[in-house]
Amino acid sequence: MVFLHTLTRGATLFSRHLPHRSSRFSTSFYTGLHQLQRTNDVTTQNFKSLPFNLYPSILLPCLFYTTARESVESPHKQIDLACNGDETKDSADVFREWGCSESDITTIFGRCPSLRNTNIQILQTKLEILSQMDIESADLVKMILCRPRFLNFKANVWLKERLEYMEALFGSREILVKSIVRNPSLLTYDFHNKIKPVIAMYESLGITNQDLITMLQSRPTMILRSNLDDEKINYIRRTGVPKESKMYKHVVCLFAISRIETIREKLMNMERYGISEDEFLGLIGRSPLVLTLSTEKVQRNMTFILGAMKLPASAVLHKPYLIFFNLETVLKPRFQIACKIEDMGLVPQIKGRILLRAFRMSDKRFVSAFITCHPPEVAAELITAYEAAKSVRRLAESSKKNHSRGFPF
Predict the structure, then answer these.
(1) CB–CB of 208/169 below 8 Å?
(2) How many helices (H) and strands (E) does the chain have?
């Protein structure tokens, strides 16, 4: 008995000091001890009462396997392993007992059909872990919708340490659960080699704990995609945003999750229109979401702003919303109506600052301010022209394929 206690404690301490990949050793060791404890051939009651629960690293063996394991032949008889579930149940029954409705089960199986044939005891153990975190069936459906293979991942041996660390980071269990539902991969990311280094990186740049929580909730893939080097840090410094600014956390996060090649491409694209790197970086400091716009969208909007509207490139630096608007439904139709009103000699005309203000109006307000204010015959002609202009679409837009890539940018 003393030998087994010593052996178990020694293996626990040994696995903690080994690299992360050495968890296979501890997994196999603890699984063997569990199975030996359950073996009927071992009649020593002291061994069967070995308190494995005293060691947080020792978990049930079914946490480490995602498929059912075959039974092992003993010299005397066959030993059924613990991971063999109840043959009278299926995964749908397990979800029903956990609180899922028939609609929820249909949604879950639709997103991840492999869960129909998953091991029952493994599924029950994972659902128990979620129950301990106060995650309900409605939350599970949301998690499966955005991460279909979430329940196929192995439960990590660092689960207890991970949850303690993240609960201390988020400040409360409620906020932690909300963040996990938003991004279930927080339970599957590499804890020591990904989560902790990324959090430490943002903290070293002056991001406060509250700002970090906000960014983790608004950008679920931030931990997986964050990477900073000297060049990115130099770009952040050149934006001129102080650490006390509310925009600072957005600037740092967007530069961290963007590829350096993409950043360079966007800087070179703006230089084609006469906007220098420093000017564009200053614009990012004032409006960080500019960095999320695709190069193609910026090119199309800038070409229309400079070519058709005859505005200088510097107008975008002062009015960045011009490159955010949709070209086909906002910029082109409203500019055409402004030109038509000018040709017809109507008042009020849409020029100068009024034109820029008209772009920011809702569709209903724009029609009320500049179209229906005219006599019925003129208003009917203008509204017909406006609807026709909005109905024009890009060439081959209907054949454009939208590929789902999980979470948005």
Answers:
(1) no
(2) 22, 2
Whether 56 has a pLDDT exceeding 80, the answer reads no
203 within 8 A of 161, measured Cβ to Cβ: no
* C-beta of residue 82 within 8 angstroms of C-beta of residue 60: yes
CB contact at 8 A, 154 and 124: no
Instruction: For 92-128, write each residue's pLDDT tens digit.
Output: 999 999 989 999 999 999 999 999 988 888 888 888 8
The DSSP call for residue 156 is P
Percentage of residues in the chain having pLDDT higher than 90? 52
Cβ-contact 311, 371 below 8 angstroms: no
Q: Which helix (H) or strand (E) segment is 179 a member of? A: helix 173-182
CA distance 228 to 241: 17
Q: Which residue has the higher pLDDT, 52 or 250?
A: 250
**Confidence (pLDDT) at 398:** 56
Confidence of residue 65 (pLDDT cuts 50, 70, 90): very low
User: Is 186 in contact with 135 (CB distance < 8 Å)?
Assistant: no
- Please check whether residue 180 is in contact with residue 134, taking contact to mean a CB–CB distance below 8 angstroms: no
The two tokens of residue 391 are 């109905």
Contact 154, 187 (CB under 8 A): no
End-to-end alpha carbon distance in the chain: 56
Summarised one tens digit per residue, pLDDT across range 276-315 is: 999 999 999 999 999 999 999 999 999 999 999 999 999 9
Q: What is the DSSP string of 199-215?
A: HHHHHHTT--HHHHHHH
What is the rounded distance in angstroms from the CA atom of residue 305 to the CA atom of residue 210?
39
- Max Cα–Cα distance, the chain, nearest Å: 102
Which of 157, 201, 200, 195 is closest to 28 using CA atoms? 157
Residue 328 contacts residue 394 (beta carbons within 8 Å): yes
User: Of 130, 156, 154, 124, nearest to 143 (Cα)?
Assistant: 130
Respond yes or no on whether the N-terminal peptide bond of residue 375 is cis (omega within 30° of 0). no
Helix (H, G, I), strand (E, B) or coil at 253: helix
